[in-house]
Specification:
The structure holds 2 protein chains of 2 kinds.
Chain A lengths: L1 H7 L1 H17 L9 H9 L1 H4 L17 H5 L4 H7 L4 E4 L2 E4 L10 H12 L11 H9 L8
Antiparallel strand pairs in A: 1-2
Helix pairs in contact in A: 1-2, 3-7, 6-7, 7-8
Chain B lengths: L1 H33 L10 E3 L8 E3 L7 E3 L5 E3 L7 E7 L7 H15 L5 E7 L7 H11 L7 E4 L3 H10 L4 E3 L7 E3 L2 E5 L5 E6 L3 H26 L1
Parallel strand pairs in B: 5-6, 6-7
Antiparallel strand pairs in B: 1-2, 3-4, 5-10, 8-9, 10-11
Classes of the chains: A mainly alpha, B alpha+beta.
């Protein structure tokens, strides 16, 4: 609940950053992994899906406030791992583009990436544990156990 | 004696000349420098002048081309006569930089869509896949309904890659890259005389902002040149 409140406003985000800096300087317990999801999104997803997850017109579907992200929760780890092609309907609009797969991400990176998306930009879906993501990745022989 | 008198008169004249020049020159030179002039990019060509005078240089120009756009229409340099245009290289299934690049070019298009003097030309570097229906679908999905304003064009592979070099955009087949092609997201700004007047990294917002700022400068220059020619 508090997490959700923090993420909904920019003030909250600024507070989170401030808090993280403080925490990191105090103990070093929190590493960069704390916002690994956001960083992975910026590196691997933002070029196509947009810096705010908004997508691009009718070419690239949004991941922000996305019906697909909510409805296909259990398929998403394999979708990141293997990519996808063919028509897909998101928020009532049909898209048809090629999405590349990601052999270069570990199970835990996929977990953090998906949790970032599932909890941001109007998505309020249940996060994954690394164990759950690895299990779901097993469905497509996509788990690297890391 | 006579000589020294003449000399001092000569000095005086020189001083007067320098002083008056320094007084009048600023008013003369300010006019041309006040109008920022976009550069001519590319290797200039040296041409022999008539009558044995020193050879002249002319700015680099884009070569002649024949392409086909998303409406199956043939487009050539003549299509862009009297216009300025922005060009880039992409392919429809490009999963790496193209969506970002095309969304940035779309930002430029949105700024100038009310001005028919500004055209856009995107070349596919994957003509084997990007057939005309694929290009039409891509353009429509991007929200471009008027092909005469933003051409999504195809041509034989070698033609496209030669043009990419001509527009100073790196594009090459690279199986090691996701999607199979390595290319830069360069936007080139071309004037009505086929000269390259600006190159911008389409992946950088600041660079695209520079294009949005410089495009009206080129339009102003073109309008002035037209007004002068009409006199």
């Amino acid at each position: 609940m508090t997490y959700r409140l923090l993420t909904v406003s920019k003030l909250g985000a600024a507070g989170l950053v401030l808090g993280l800096t403080l925490a990191a300087s105090l103990s070093g317990c929190f590493t960069e992994r704390r916002n690994e999801g956001a960083q992975l999104y910026a590196t691997h997803c933002a070029n196509c899906h947009g810096e705010q997850g908004q997508g691009l017109k009718r070419l690239i579907p949004p991941v922000a406030a996305s019906s697909y992200v909510a409805e296909h929760r259990t398929e998403l780890p394999c979708l990141i791992r293997q990519g996808m092609r063919g028509e897909v309907v998101v928020n009532g609009v049909a898209y048809n583009q090629v999405m590349p797969g990601h052999d270069d991400l570990t199970d835990s990176q996929i977990t953090n990436l998906l949790n970032f998306v599932q909890q941001n930009w109007g998505n309020k879906n249940q996060p994954y544990t690394i164990r759950e993501a690895s299990e779901l990745l097993g469905h497509c022989n996509g788990s690297d156990g890391q | 004696m006579k000589i020294s008198f003449l000399r001092s008169v000569g000095h005086l004249l020189l001083i007067i000349a320098v002083v008056s020049a320094s007084l009048t020159l600023p008013s003369c030179t300010q006019k041309p420098t006040a109008e920022a002039h976009l550069p001519y990019l590319g290797e200039p060509e040296v041409v022999a002048s008539a009558g044995g005078a020193a050879p002249d240089t002319v700015p680099y120009t884009v070569p002649s081309f024949t392409l086909t756009n998303q409406d199956s229409q043939t487009i050539t340099n003549q299509t862009f006569a009297g216009k300025v245009y922005v060009t880039d290289f992409f392919f429809a299934t490009c999963p790496s930089i193209c969506p970002k690049m095309q969304s940035e070019l779309l930002r430029v298009y949105e700024q100038f869509k009310g001005n028919p003097k500004v055209l856009f030309l995107s070349h596919t570097i994957d003509p084997a896949h990007d057939s005309i229906p694929v290009l039409r679908d891509y353009a429509e999905r991007l929200g471009i309904k008027d092909a005469s304003r933003w051409h999504f064009a195809t041509a034989p592979h070698d033609t496209i890659f030669a043009l990419a070099r001509a527009y100073m955009t790196a594009a090459q087949v690279d199986k090691g890259v996701v999607g199979g092609y390595a290319h830069s997201g360069t936007f080139a700004l071309i004037d009505s005389h086929r000269r390259i007047r600006g190159l911008y990294d389409g992946m950088e917002k600041a660079e695209v902002d520079r294009l949005i700022k410089e495009l009206p400068e080129l339009l102003k220059e073109e309008a002035n040149a037209q007004a002068t020619a009409a006199k």
